[in-house]
Specification:
alpha+beta, Aminopeptidase, 25% helix, 4 helices, 7-stranded mixed β-sheet
Length: 165
């Protein structure tokens, strides 16, 4: 049975559009991974993405992962709660100062606790702080049911939808 999937593309064109959700939990810490290790990015992709059908990169070789994750234009941040992996995001810096939130997600045990808004706010602000002219992301109906709502709650606006079968 083929199920249609809708992909939503969202963007923000100005930092003043960000509706920031502040972190009120001192146990939740968000840190940039300044030492690039493609194996860690692969782990994050598999661990966080498995429930949401992130499959595009599962067959990548070590070389493909290294080229992707250790590229100067990709930066990764990880959220921890009491030392446990709570979530992560990757920012892909593109031409014309566009920044894509390439991957964003929470570990299953941390969904529904308000951390998605906090982590997404951090991601968008990190892009603006590093000179973005535009921040964008895409998600689809295979993602968590609240994903689009979280993006919109932070101020991102849908600019395109695609349906595939």
């Amino acid at each position: 049975m083929n199920q249609s999937v809708t992909t939503y593309y969202l963007e923000m064109d100005h930092p003043k559009e960000l509706k920031y959700k502040h972190n009120t939990d001192p146990a939740l810490q968000i840190m940039e991974c300044k030492v690039k290790q493609y194996e860690f990015n692969r782990f994050l992709y598999e661990f966080i993405g498995k429930p949401w059908h992130w499959v595009d990169k599962l067959q990548w070789s070590d070389g493909q992962w290294r080229q992707y994750a250790e590229n100067d234009k990709l930066r990764t941040w990880v959220a921890y709660k009491f030392g446990s992996l709570a979530g992560y995001y990757e920012l892909q810096f593109q031409a014309d100062r566009n920044v894509e939130i390439a991957y964003f997600g929470l570990a299953k045990r941390f969904i529904g606790k308000g951390y998605g808004g906090v982590l997404l706010s951090h991601a968008i602000q990190s892009a603006w702080d590093r000179g973005a002219k535009r921040v964008w992301v895409h998600t689809c109906t295979l993602d968590h049911p609240n994903a689009v709502n979280n993006y919109q709650a932070r101020g991102l606006k849908i600019y395109k939808e695609e349906v595939s079968h």
